[in-house]
Amino acid sequence: MDIHIVTLFPEFFHSPLRTSLLGKATEAGILRISFHNPRDFTADRHGHVDDAPYGGGPGMVMQAEPVLDALKAIPDPGRTLLMSPAGRSLDHALAAELAKNSRLTLVCGRYEGIDARLSLCFPMEEVRVGDAVLNGGETAALAVIEAVGRLVPGFLGKVASAADETFAEGLLEHPHYTRPPDLHGHAVPEILLGGDHGRIALWRRQTALTATLERRPELLEEAPLTRRDVEFLASCTSLRPARNLSFCLLHHPVFLEEGTIGTSSLTNLDVHDIARVSRTYAMGPFFVATPLEDQRRILDAILAHWTTGPGDRAKALETVRPAASLEEAEDMLAERAGKRPALVGTSARWPDDGVPCLTPRQVRDMCRDGPVMLCLGTARGLAPEVTRRCRGMLRPLRFMNDNHLSVRGAAAILADRILGDCL
Asked: Which of 39, 69, 130, 155 has the largest count of CB atoms under 10 Å?
């Protein structure tokens, strides 16, 4: 594979490309790497390749023309990648895709970036390595070279080595062990010493699954899983993180149709469907709060109707906890969890300025620290006296479109975005 690197700092790559397997691959000609420095193509007698940004602001911007001339000087650049934080994330699938090419060109920016017109003048794809800020594209380019190069035939001693490693099957890799058999009281798992390759393969698959469930559960959403894998994961109840999220469906205080603040009526479908969502996502108790005694009697009748029969509906509706107010629901959850819950509001409208706007990921992180109560408003939404008590407001589910979701529909989407299947 021919790899062309467009960079202001070729020396950045000298040591890594002479080391270990990368060094052996370049010596053997498996990877043929050449450097193209934009400074060699600038008309500036001082070799400058940057200038101040139009519109003002800190830092300098790489000029497009020297980079463009460097690219044009490459006889056959092949697939051209610009290292950019806005690009496609480098993962195993992309590395495998790139490894099928005979030629790659990697463009490394510096300073505040390269003049945006470069990509208009030369066809290229943007690729990023992680979401951290780097000083330049060289570190990212080196990661691309290693991730891609090791998949080129001849780079690794055994083809199976690349196929068995982390992310190749969408999972973290199983743990590895070597001599001695006992290290400071920590023994190698007995199954690895028995010589039963079938049992060893099963152990490795299951330990890869448990490692992924514990450390990177989001990978399981895309990983190719068998029914046997799913049954095993379902049995790992002790490894699943606590679901510290509870719904509280508030019927007071809420905005009514006419814009006043008051109390809304219970709806059978809301109670029924949100309870089933809570059960499906293994959430905490589902609180239904209304100050009206007649409404609570209706709620008792609804629960009695759905919990007297057999089946999943009875199990789901058993999670419902009637409350006279949000404060009572908080007290009930605090008594159960041993800690007062953090309140998070929801709305179909973008929060007012000054109100913290939370993403599902932020709420997920909050759940790791303790109980979180997600307040769902009925009628026209939560009244200000509720939202003022919240730690923040979740951004609307469809903040760039009109909202026509029922509260029970919104609850299902929120549960999935915050918790997913594996989180």
From this structure: 155
